[in-house]
Amino acid sequence: MGPEFVLGLVLILVGTVASAFPRPKTYLVQLINLEIPAWGLLLVMLSYNEALALLTFGGVSALSTFIYVRVIQKREGT
Amino acid sequence: MNGYEIALALCGIIALYAAVRVVLEKDTMRKLPFLNVVSFAISGSIVLLIPHPLAIVAAAAYFVGSTLESNAIASTYAGGPKDE
Amino acid sequence: MPAEPLHILIAAMVSWANFVTIDVFFKLPEKGGVSGASEIGRHIEEGGGALHGGYMMGNIVSSPDASAGTLLASCGVYAAGIPGGLFAALLVYIGNRICYDPGYAGTTGCITATFIVYGFTLIGFSAAEFIVGMVIAILTIQGISHVHSSRLLATLWRWRQG
Amino acid sequence: MNELLILVFGAMVVLGAIATIISRDLFDKLISLGIIVAGIMPFLADRGLLDVLAATALIAPLSTIFILMAIRRKKDGS
Hints:
The complex is a heterotetramer. Chain B is built from 3 helices and no strands. Chain B has helices at residues 3-24, 28-49, 53-78. Chain B starts with a helix and ends in a 6-residue tail after the last helix. The model of chain B has no long low-confidence stretch (mean pLDDT 87). Chain C has one domain (5-155). Chain C has 7 helices and no strands. Chains A and D meet through helix 1, helix 2 and helix 3 of A and helix 1, helix 2 and helix 3 of D.
């Protein structure tokens, strides 16, 4: 168990709790808090040395953020 | 403890100090210079950790990315580009 | 290669002089280059600093200028010698174009810093000391006290003007 | 990477996570997210995954800019 693994688990736990109960209860705060467990998952993948998984996960994470932003805009705009 | 280790440790300690200052500062715009210090220290320690020619590209990519992020945050805070 | 704290201190002073001279010479404290830089300058003035020093700090934050050039040039010399430094100048130029900046200050600072750092490696300094020296130099401008450093930069800008 | 550096960069990641969760302003949250990214980068560099590092460093501001797009739209609408 390297330090990256422990650090990643801490980030996943803390970030999941934070995005489940956002303090000002808006969608944008929830979306920003959702970035914390994403970086934690990246650290856990790093501790297994999976380069291809890291690249794919980084791309998909940005793409899903974009889709969430569009969904939030559509829901709040109309 | 040779010179290389002293340099790396100094970079890490400066990065941690600037991160603490970012968290303690109240004004949003005055946080950004401290964040700039953090990105300087981190891109320096990336190159110090792996002295490989490709590390220059990685450090420059991190630095430009972090600068672009600060730029976007500051101009959105100021009200966005005027000519859009 | 004997690396002492004295070497790091000298390297910090040399890189501080290099980037401040080039930034002030290219008129960075005159105005904020983008709207974010002017906003940072205005907030620093509200906190008790000087306006032109705040503009220069905002410009350093929001586009890679001579300070970034000095850091990446010493990184390049550390990793690959003189060609590494010139390659870093190209990267700084690309980064400046991404951030909507003409990019004269960054590229000039990077090229001069390449030769300065290479010259110092010939007399017993290590490029790693210049990397940490540049980090210390940027810490004194942006990280200790915004009020005092912006007043210092505004004084230098007044000298440049008059 | 020795113990001191692991401790320093790990402390940066944890500090950034706590600051992201605690702060209420959206811009403050995004800046603290930048500290998390800064703390993760040396762990990527220590494994020697330079391609992953360059890709991640360019993807991280992209997702921040996507979130900023939503914030700007909301400010214009109100």
